[in-house]
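Technical note accompanying the year-one report. For the benefit of new consortium partners, we illustrate the data format agreed upon in the data management plan: each record pairs a sequence with a structure-token string. No post-processing was applied to the example shown here.
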Amino acid sequence: MKKKEKPADHDNEERWLLTYADLITLLLGLFVILYAMSKIDAGKYAEMVSAMGGVFGKEKPGVLQGQPGMMQSTMPQLQNERQKVEKEIRDALGSGLKKDLVSVSQNERGITIHIMEELLFNSGSAEFKASSLVVLDSLASILKKLPNDIRIEGHTDNVPISTSQFPSNWHLSVARAVNAGYYLIQKHGLDPEKVSVVGYAEYRPLVPNTTDENRSRNRRVDIVILTNVPHEPIAINEDHKSNNNQLRPQQ
């Protein structure tokens, strides 16, 4: 007797539906994630990034690991520390603030100390005036105790300069920032790993360069205490007050 032939196997023509269903599911998940990301509060996200180290600050281990409530608990502490440090700075600077030669401000980067050219340098020069280093000496006692990174920025007005020493305002602004940073490091022992310098020339003015008074305000050195989340709270010892000389701007 002849053996019965087995029927030939046929491929399942609907197997593609499984792949298609998997693809649709993955796409749905992707769009849900994209939609959720689009709803992030940009302002709060910027504050969190600034608090977590900004561009130059130091990052606290575990901060970016999604720990619940981290941003809510960090921001009030950070603001309190900023206010504390700003008060210490104002106390150290004393009468210099009243003469509009030094001012203090806060923004998302941290605390910025604006020191006018008139207090530190002669026009077109990067050499410190002999009687003007008291402002840096007063600030150094505070800066060296902070865990934060320190950024020193040189600024000029928009009046062109062209000398053998400074071919442009870029050169002048960088030289002033470098001299200020180097003085703080060499004279007062600031940690070089935490200090950076940059020159902006006339391109980041405080006010428009439309009058002589405004141009005078734009010629400055800024010392920026960069916002970060230190491993330990910012603490300033009281003993620095004994070294706080009253500023006596040159008449």
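Partners are asked to follow this layout when depositing records. The two ends are 126 Å apart (CA to CA).
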